Fold this sequence. Notes:
Blueprint: E1 21-27, E2 31-37, E3 43-50, E4 62-63, H1 65-83, E5 90-97, E6 103-106, E7 116-117, H2 125-131, H3 141-144, H4 153-163, H5 167-172, E8 176-179, H6 181-189, E9 199-201, H7 202-205, E10 211-212, E11 217-218, H8 220-226, E12 235-237, E13 240-245, E14 255-261, H9 262-269, E15 278-282, E16 286-293, E17 304-309, E18 317-324, H10 328-336, H11 346-352, E19 361-363, E20 381-383, H12 391-417, E21 424-427, H13 434-444, E22 448-451, H14 456-468, H15 475-479, E23 484-488, H16 494-509
Parallel strand pairs: 1-5, 5-14, 9-12, 15-21, 21-22
Antiparallel strand pairs: 1-2, 2-3, 4-7, 6-8, 10-11, 13-14, 15-16, 16-18, 17-18, 19-20, 22-23
Helix pairs in contact: 1-6, 9-14, 10-12, 11-12, 12-13
The structure holds adenosine-5'-diphosphate (ADP) and SN-glycerol-3-phosphate.
The site of SN-glycerol-3-phosphate (G3P) has 12 residues, from α9.
Amino acid sequence: xxxxxxxxxxxxxxxxxxxxxxxxxxxxxxxxxxxxxxxxxxxxxxxxxxxxxxxxxxxxxxxxxxxxxxxxxxxxxxxxxxxxxxxxxxxxxxxxxxxxxxxxxxxxxxxxxxxxxxxxxxxxxxxxxxxxxxxxxxxxxxxxxxxxxxxxxxxxxxxxxxxxxxxxxxxxxxxxxxxxxxxxxxxxxxxxxxxxxxxxxxxxxxxxxxxxxxxxxxxxxxxxxxxxxxxxxxxxxxxxxxxxxxxxxxxxxxxxxxxxxxxxxxxxxxxxxxxxxxxxxxxxxxxxxxxxxxxxxxxxxxxxxxxxxxxxxxxxxxxxxxxxxxxxxxxxxxxxxxxxxxxxxxxxxxxxxxxxxxxxxxxxxxxxxxxxxxxxxxxxxxxxxxxxxxxxxxxxxxxxxxxxxxxxxxxxxxxxxxxxxxxxxxxxxxxxxxxxxxxxxxxxxxxxxxxxxxxxxxxxxxxxxxxxxxxxxxxxxxxxxxxxxxxxxxxxxxxxxxxxxxxxxxxxxxxxxxxxxxx
Length: 519
Ligand SMILES: Nc1ncnc2c1ncn2[C@@H]1O[C@H](COP(=O)(O)OP(=O)(O)O)[C@@H](O)[C@H]1O
Ligand SMILES: O=P(O)(O)OC[C@H](O)CO
């Protein structure tokens, strides 16, 4: 039994009528999707394709840029075909993407010079440590809002320039372009070597560790420190404006009118337009963002300061972010590596077969810990094991790990922003797990609400593109589309919550310092 109330069984499904429409391309960590939306923000058609995850060494994660571009073209054409429409019915294309994942390519041939280094890739840990020597991990935090960590794009560019034969000279000669997946998709979509535009938006640029949050431009001092030639960098534009038009495929001639990192797009799609509004997206990892208004808020509690969005030439809106590297991927690990469940959904049945965690706590520091710790030396633990513990208790502890990590982020957010969350808007694949959503509500002692359209990331990019071309008049029109589909309210006793939180924090302590320098 949960306190869930379902208001709709098929969130977002719609019959499409006669349009016009907005097409949203969501280039994610595991797959690329194209979703067609109507004016009410309802889904008309979806096409999706997974791409290969390449693991050349422990801790290294790569994607093939050419495969990703091929998939983006396929799903875009696929979604338009499924919708039964043509490019003439589509008013604009929005782009959203996995952030930080770094690609360098040859501007003349359009060929990537190396696989993309994915945001989860930890090969730049040593480089980050070196960059922070004598200064500490906050060397560039004042300018960029980010701690030195392998997560961000800047150190990944530097690694490629240092490790791909002859690349630095070609980059300095202006032959090489850098992009996160937004830039790569937009450049190809608008013509590639034949006139493609080389741009990124402020939200994606804010994850490179190379953009100054105050000027919203590349920071020359940081570029010099990281030894990155400015010639590789795209032009930074707002999140909602026309960058160019699609050069080919089913959407040839349609304006490309938005770009946002996927977590910022979800903030936009959840219509968190007012200061203090927040959302949390539960997918491979989990990312909780709070709108902090028109000035960046510094974090003293392990969060990131980032750009939330910028609509055309309006003032930018900033956000605080708590990034958790491993949440849904812990469930995948239970399924694929441990073989304890056959499907992600099965974890709910298994975890529901017991009353509690039986004293066990799982801390998934698989590649260190992200927010609020930023510790590259941490590794995963299962703490509190006794012979009493069964796989059902472990399943429960796995779900609780996502809930407690959320609690830690919310606590940090309250300290940094002074805002107490009165409710948390959620989205992403894990939100179909009722037990997890109930547990999150319990540990936060606050309601958790899920909207009708679960694809808030793609919706956010569609909204931004639609605003740019006048498809929607303003953000008030978008707010009117947000409808609640389900809500969970807290049921846990305060003393249980306090005891469990203390145990969780004890288990987190056990993960620290596992990796030593020489490793
Ligand atoms: N019922 C479920 N319970 C727990 N986790 C789930 C469930 N369904 C999916 N997941 C997890 O959610 C993730 C997929 O969510 P999605 O939002 O598609 O992620 P992403 O956009 O990061 O690829 C996977 O890691 C999967 O393990
Ligand atoms: O593609 P996702 O949904 O796993 O999101 C990844 C984030 O953007 C990483 O910062």
